[in-house]
Amino acid sequence: MADSAQAQELVYLVTGGCGFLGEHVVRMLLQQEPRLRELRIFDLHLGPWLEELKTGPVQVTAIQGDVTQAHEVAAAVAGAHVVIHTAGLVDVFGRASPETIHAVNVQGTKNVIEACVQTGTQFLVYTSSMEVVGPNIKGHPFYRGNEDTPYEAVHRHPYPRSKALAEQLVLEANGRKGLRLGGRLFRAIPASVEHGRVYVGNVAWMHVLVARELQERAALMGGQVYFCYDKSPYKSYEDFNMEFLGPCGLRLVGTRPLLPYWLLMLLAFLNALLQWLLRPLLLYAPLLNPYTLAMANTTFTVSTDKAQRHFGYEPLFSWEESRTRTVRWMQTMDSSAQ
Ligand SMILES: NC(=O)c1ccc[n+]([C@@H]2O[C@H](COP(=O)([O-])OP(=O)(O)OC[C@H]3O[C@@H](n4cnc5c(N)ncnc54)[C@H](O)[C@@H]3O)[C@@H](O)[C@H]2O)c1
Ligand SMILES: C[C@@H](CO)CCC[C@@H](C)[C@H]1CC[C@H]2[C@@H]3[C@H](O)C=C4C[C@@H](O)CC[C@]4(C)[C@H]3CC[C@]12C
């Protein structure tokens, strides 16, 4: 728990607070934000683990709600000093309709912004996504770029489109008055295709830090975009995954893709066709579709220190700690699944 020497007077709201990132943000706030008086956790699905948080000095308020419902959002936001908006629908597999993705990611964000404006919450931190930038539909690589690197962001897929629209809304609102195994995997992606990954604990820490520093440095930080980053190595999507799957007993076969790209693309399109044909009967949402294959085969990594320069961000977890914690998390997930 955070040091209680400082006055506890702040009310934080975390939307999507029971999600993968949201839970880390919630726990990080309780550990790292000494000024916290109340922590509101707003989510469509509340987790049972929230109960264990209610024994500490900070008032933890669980709110079951839907960001697409403006009145529910307004009620949750009212009186909060800071809102960290992570609630979102992450779907590149075709599980949800484009309309649903838009309703949650765009309209939901609109509702959060309007609630902040209407109830006078000055500080809003929004969790965007690398896909707001790319890879674009032309497959242009983004090689170790930063927030200022020019890149033609062109999207047709519902998820990146929704994230780009939502991010734009947030930026436009800035300044508004009145916001295991022993298996083998067969390489399918060239090892040379770098993909950016960041440990969730460092992403959560960056959210907490930016929310705190934004209150003191609004002139500098307001309206800014910050890439999340840490010391995670630059690797292909599959090689990076092996950092965690290897210790769990899996092995990646092949130094080069075992199947030619055209065959993977054919399989991806067959999956998309099957998804379309089966939709009236059942939800078929495989990992491999034209969009995910293009994502996995397009170099997209960042190299920046903007967050360090603007608000002193340094990753809280080293690469070694991040890897150890992730492997441990995977092993607990595997044992609970058995
Ligand atoms: N996981 C990633 O790799 C990644 C990378 C970049 C950005 N993001 C962004 O981070 C945010 C969190 O992603 P995550 O990986 O934790 O996903 P997640 O699915 O684990 O968490 C999302 C949370 O939002 C909640 N939610 C969904 N719809 C809601 C609604 N209508 N009303 C209220 N709550 C709702 C879900 O119940 C869930 O708890 C998202 O905005 C996502 O776009 C995720
Ligand atoms: C072709 C397969 C052989 O192994 C590999 C398919 C991998 C894909 C399922 C993933 C490749 C890139 C991933 C996405 C990327 O890491 C960034 C994302 C942004 C974030 O906002 C949400 C998750 C995701 C879209 C992520 C999803 C999984 C991939 C497409």
From TrEMBL:
GO terms for cellular component: endoplasmic reticulum membrane. The keyword Transmembrane helix applies. It catalyses: (24S)-7alpha-dihydroxycholesterol + NAD(+) = (24S)-7alpha,24-dihydroxycholest-4-en-3-one + NADH + H(+); 7alpha,25-dihydroxycholesterol + NAD(+) = 7alpha,25-dihydroxy-4-cholesten-3-one + NADH + H(+); 7alpha-hydroxycholesterol + NAD(+) = 7alpha-hydroxycholest-4-en-3-one + NADH + H(+); (25R)-cholest-5-en-3beta,7alpha,26-triol + NAD(+) = (25R)-7alpha,26-dihydroxycholest-4-en-3-one + NADH + H(+). Pfam families: 3Beta_HSD. Keywords: Endoplasmic reticulum, Isomerase, Lipid metabolism, Membrane, NAD, Oxidoreductase, Steroidogenesis, Transmembrane, Transmembrane helix. It is a multi-pass membrane protein. This is 3 beta-hydroxysteroid dehydrogenase type 7.
